[in-house]
Amino acid sequence: MSSMVKAHPVSQQRKSSLVESVAAGMITRSAMVLTSSLHTREGQSHHVSGMYENTYQLKPDQIPKSCQLREIVQEVLTEHLSGLTYDQSLGVMTKKLAEQMKQRAKELALSRYKYVAMVVLGPVTRTSASLASRCVWNPTYDTFGEFTYTNHSIMATGVLYGLYVE
């Protein structure tokens, strides 16, 4: 029995392609996964170049305290929202507040920590709001701080997570 294999050329820059086999008049298909991308084949890797040794560090030198992160959230929200009245255009400020919280947390200079900030901002009304979040969590090294700021017309809740990256 003769068998012909027809493979699609690599020049199509596809990460996976089909291989068609013709055996005894039947066409069968199977998937072929290419393990290298165009960049690595041409010597241009998108990864960081250089040699680094593994540190095998499984725990942080210092863990951020929840009260430190709460204080950062409280300072940022109070600093930017005090004296303001609620307006719908204030909603775009949430991104600025979250970025400011992350920057201040990075100033703690704790290595291998990633910070995630979340801000919810709205008017003070008689309605209620619920806020929930979920993530993979290591209770030994990961922590968070939260604070809710309110004045006569604005309610804002900020949460700052400190996650250890091994």
TrEMBL record:
Origin: domain of life: Eukaryota
One GO term describing the cellular component: cytoplasm
Gene Ontology molecular function: any one: dynein intermediate chain binding
Transmembrane segments: none
Gene3D superfamilies: Tctex-1
UniProt xrefs under InterPro entries: Tctex-1-like, Tctex-1-like_sf
GO biological process terms on file: microtubule-based movement
Family listed: Belongs to the dynein light chain Tctex-type family.
Protein name: TCTEX1 domain-containing protein 1
Originating species: Plakobranchus ocellatus
